[in-house]
Amino acid sequence: MVVTDELSLVFAALADPTRRAILERLAEGEATVHQLAEPFAMTQQAVSKHLKVLEKARLISRTRSAQARPCALEGERLAEAAGWIERHRALWADRHDRLASYLEQL
Questions:
Q1: Is the dihedral of CA 57, 41, 67, 26 positive or negative?
Q2: What is the rounded distance in angstroms from the CA atom of residue 49 to the CA atom of residue 27?
Q3: How confident is the model at residue 56 (pLDDT cuts 50, 70, 90)?
Q4: pLDDT given at position 72
Q5: What angle do the packed helices 44-56 and 6-14 form, to 10 degrees?
């Protein structure tokens, strides 16, 4: 399956617990691949693959600083996903409430 729309890229990236943990770490501030790999039982190469997914979803950005390429969280994309969830949560809550009212009437 090839995911192309932006919101799907974000949700696909967030579906993996390792990537969510990386984002949690980046919420504390910038970090290098080496720093991000430390808590995981995986190679830096494996962490780099996760970073590529996060970067493609534009959840992180990477800059060049001498030899390092620190990563930083891009909160705007998370805010967009959270906004989508909130809009649909309200819709689903309303539908649930209407269903509950209907079932009570039965």
A1: positive
A2: 19
A3: very high
A4: 93
A5: 150
Q: What is the DSSP letter of 69?
A: -
Q: Per-residue pLDDT tens for 2-13?
A: 455 888 999 999
pTM: 0.77
Torsion, CA 37, CA 24, CA 20, CA 7, rounded to 10:
-130
Length of the chain: 106
Return d(Cα 71, Cα 24) in angstroms, integer. 12
Q: Where are the alpha helices (H) located in 1-106, listed in sequence order?
A: 6-14, 17-26, 33-37, 44-56, 75-105
